[in-house]
Design a protein that fits this description.
Helix content is 51%, strand content 12%. Helix 8 links the parallel strand 4 and strand 5. Helix 5 crosses helix 7.
């Protein structure tokens, strides 16, 4: 017979670990200790408390290489804990993690894992949306830290098709491209092809256009978007997102290249504009 898992309040966890309540609260908000809310109060699995007791967080070693920053962020996303998720990001930055690594090693892997959990039926669509919204707010705050350094490598315009509602991948790609020294115009999601092409045509020093395609079944719409862009601009057009299998698939749709992974977009873009 499988016994039900035992859940503890934060006060009970503090007693178990013989620490102050606020220490336990900090463990939760920084992702050291997995927790979920029940009736407005945090609850922690006894097994997770036992695991923490065996390997407590090392004081003063927030930047220790073994710190699983992406797992800590994922815990807070799955708990719909916006403040805690941002605290994890701040702690990672305080440890010396550069902005590019925050995106590539924390934000993107955690977001991808949330999507996998939803796809596998382990979380509801509402929980997936809540986590995605938290990531959107985190990226909005991180974007302000992407400073302009040196001479611009040119302008990149990013957007989606008219039938694509996912704008977060565009935000992520925009910041990663800015970090590499490009200017980026992020047009967001649900963009009519003609409007996309018109605004791209008006940009000075345009070097590339990126179209994000996350939702499958848009081959005709993608082709229409690329066709509209081709009529207005003469620069490489790149496709990115989960609905794109790779370069060959992107070329079949009329683009110059493509990748399903946002973290692969920047090196491929740099190849196109080299």
């Amino acid at each position: 017979m499988v016994m039900p898992a035992e859940h503890l309040t934060l006060n009970e966890v503090a007693e178990e670990l013989d620490v102050h309540y606020m220490t336990v609260y900090r463990y939760v908000r920084l992702g050291h200790l997995p927790a979920h809310k029940e009736g407005g109060s945090w609850r922690v699995l006894k097994s997770d408390v036992d695991a923490l007791r065996k390997e407590p967080p090392a004081a003063g070693r927030r930047g220790h290489p073994s710190t699983p920053w992406n797992e800590r962020l994922l815990q807070r996303l799955m708990a719909a804990d916006q403040a805690g998720a941002w605290s994890v990001v701040e702690a990672a930055q305080a440890s010396g993690m550069p902005l590019r690594a925050i995106y590539l090693e924390m934000v993107i892997p955690s977001l991808r894992k949330v999507g996998e959990e939803w796809h596998n039926g382990n979380i509801s669509v509402a929980e997936e949306h809540a986590a995605s919204q938290i990531v959107t707010r985190i990226v909005s705050r991180l974007s302000a830290q992407v400073g302009k350094r040196g001479v611009s490598k040119g302008m990149v315009v990013l957007g989606t098709t008219a039938h694509e509602l996912h704008g977060l991948p565009v935000m992520l790609a925009a910041d990663l491209i800015r970090i590499e020294g490009f200017e980026v115009l992020d047009l967001g999601s649900n963009l009519p092809a003609d409007a996309f092409a018109e605004i791209a045509e008006r940009q000075q020093r345009l070097v590339a256009v990126g179209v994000s395609v996350t939702t499958p079944g848009q081959a005709e719409t993608v082709a229409e978007t690329i066709s509209a862009l081709r009529e207005r601009v003469d620069v490489p057009i790149f496709l990115g997102g989960g609905a794109i299998d790779g370069d060959e698939h992107a070329r079949l749709l009329g683009a110059d290249g493509g990748t399903p992974r946002v973290e692969d977009m920047v090196p491929k873009l740099l190849e196109l504009v080299a």
